[in-house]
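Q: I'm a student working through a structural biology exercise. My instructor gave each of us a protein and asked us to get a predicted structure, then write a short paragraph describing it. Mine is Phosphoglycolate phosphatase. I'm not confident about reading structure output yet, so if you can add a plain explanation after the tokens, that would really help. Here is the sequence I was given:
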Amino acid sequence: MSALSDIRFIAFDLDGTLLDSVPDLADAADKTMQALGRPGVTVEQVTTWIGNGADILIGRALSRSLEVDPDLDPALHREARQLFDRFYAEGGHQKSALYPGVKATLAAFHQAGIPMAIVTNKPAQFVPHLLEEHDIAQYFVDVIGGDTFPLKKPDPFALNWLLDKHQLRAEQMLMVGDSRNDILAAKAAACYVVGLTYGYNYGQPISASEPDIVLDHFSQLTEVVTLGS
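A: Happy to help. First, here is the predicted structure for Phosphoglycolate phosphatase. I'll explain a few features afterward.
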């Protein structure tokens, strides 16, 4: 396994990387479709539809396809998104859970003095509560949601913003994620990227997006990033 010796900052995706959130997302999407009198959706379907933010998730659910129907009624799309946000908030994220090793690994990086950030396409309004709920909020110096900036992953805007804010060279930052959006954003920002195999990547292997390093378990990150010194 390759090791990176000069990492000064780590940016993490959230859903599918730190948090297995698909059961709650699927519940909210299913309730949304049923409230609109449409066929319900399954966890298996939603697992392949997430990663590009809530608007596209709902567009895919309405289209029942990874490709959003270009003829989808914008008013229906807006109504569905509002319903989804309501159902997702009302659900209280009760079915979401951290992946094995996440908390201990974040604590180790924090103890080693490595600053960390969240860079997710999830709507920003939901992120702080989730981090608090799972007792990991204290590890992050920046929390960037899908609507924090005008552009979201795979655009590198958020990563470039972090590089600028923390006065880092690209090779000093590592992005950790589970989908091609994470890999593409990191490559566009010229920073290192780890792809995790266990998350949500539209049913495709993460290795197909050619991250610098592929890991099966979150805790293996401590073997990739040199701690101390």
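A: Here are two points you could use in your paragraph. The CA atoms of residues 53 and 121 lie 5 Å apart. The radius of gyration is 17 Å. It's a good idea to check both against the output above yourself.
Q: Great, thank you!
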